[in-house]
Amino acid sequence: MDWEKVFATRAGRMKASEIRELLKLLAQPDIISFAGGIPDPKLFPDQAFREAYADIFATSAGEALQYSVSEGYPPLREWIAAHMATIGIPCTADNILITSGSQQALDYLGKLLLSPGDTALVGWPTYLGALGAFNAYEPTYDRLDPETNRSASDYAETAAAAGGRVKFAYMSVDFANPTGRTMDRAARERVLDLADELDMAVIEDAAYQALRYNGEAIPPILALEIARKGNIEDCRTLYCGSFSKSLAPGLRVGWVCGSKRAIGQMVLLKQAGDLHSSTLNQMAIDRVARSIFDDHVAMLRGVYAERRDHMLSALKRYMPEGVSWTHPEGGMFVWLTVPPNLDGAELLAKSLKTQRVAFVPGRAFFADGTGGNTLRLSFSLADKETIEEGIRRLGLLLAG
Ligand code: PMP
């Protein structure tokens, strides 16, 4: 069978990452890994989940094991709507669609908004998983850089030359994956100006929103837009939230919040895609969020903040001249820029041989394939001693 002949053109846009093979080596016990951008499983609220699942099976097994509505488990949508109000986004359960992780929301938004050749504005770099989700819908990417004053007409003309129009801007807004940077308020306002001028949607990826360790919270883009327009129904921003970093990623529960018109259309995609997210897991998240969300997130902030501090202090002590890095106020990532003659993928190969330290080379996060001299480090999984030793070794690698 010549599969190439039957694969759709979109399949050609879905490529396995060049570094996947290297990252398989991470399972070896002597490797210090700063590669995985995942929560520390030792911090999962497993006791709360044990009790929630026991209670669900004792009281509501039939409901939990049954099909349920595509919009999501109604009490959980209510809880999320109330939670959104606490971060400056007044809305109702009708403005919420529950998705199987926020990753599914990105896939559905690509499906909803992109025809082949349309343009998606993304950061250089941006979340690799967003590029992966959007790629299937065959977009062209253009660089969103709210700090420059590139005009709306320039974006529009570039998109027309590529055979479509600008459909949305996508951003990981707080403590971004991969850079750890947070968009300031002026940049968020600028994106909203651009969105009005280009008549495009805004996809606000807030996966790390709850994990702020210091500094003042900046209102979500959707909150700023509601302040401009008076209510959520007139807004073009779609906010993607997730319980993956705050409670547990394995249950695959996230959400999208936006105008009823857009959410209603996404419900149709959800119906066609997987009918609904796991009823049982939504019920468990609902119970656990109601009983421990704030306390649990406060605990996570304390632990991760310390790890971030250890990593930043070790970087200061061990990095050679010519290496710079970000100072995240939350999340899980620090982003290193190394001298332009170095290449992240080559450094990783060498590091695994000589220093036994792993990280993610930055190039894959750039839609244009640049960024060879960047590395993503995650501090979420390692304790103080491991961070110290890993960064010391990384310093030797980069000095050598
Ligand atoms: N957005 C960003 C920026 C992420 O880093 C991730 C996960 N690493 C996701 C979305 C997807 O997370 P989930 O599907 O678990 O909500």
TrEMBL record:
Domain of life: Bacteria
Cofactor: pyridoxal 5'-phosphate
CDD domains: AAT_like
Gene3D superfamilies for the chain: Aspartate Aminotransferase, domain 1, Type I PLP-dependent aspartate aminotransferase-like (Major domain)
Keyword entries, A-Z: Aminotransferase, Pyridoxal phosphate, Transferase
Gene Ontology terms for molecular function: transaminase activity
Boundaries of every Aminotransferase class I/classII large domain copy: 43-394
Transmembrane segments: none
SUPFAM superfamilies with a match to the protein in the record: PLP-dependent transferases
Position of the signal peptide: none
Full protein name: PLP-dependent aminotransferase family protein
Source organism phylogeny: Bacteria, Pseudomonadati, Pseudomonadota, Alphaproteobacteria, Rhodobacterales
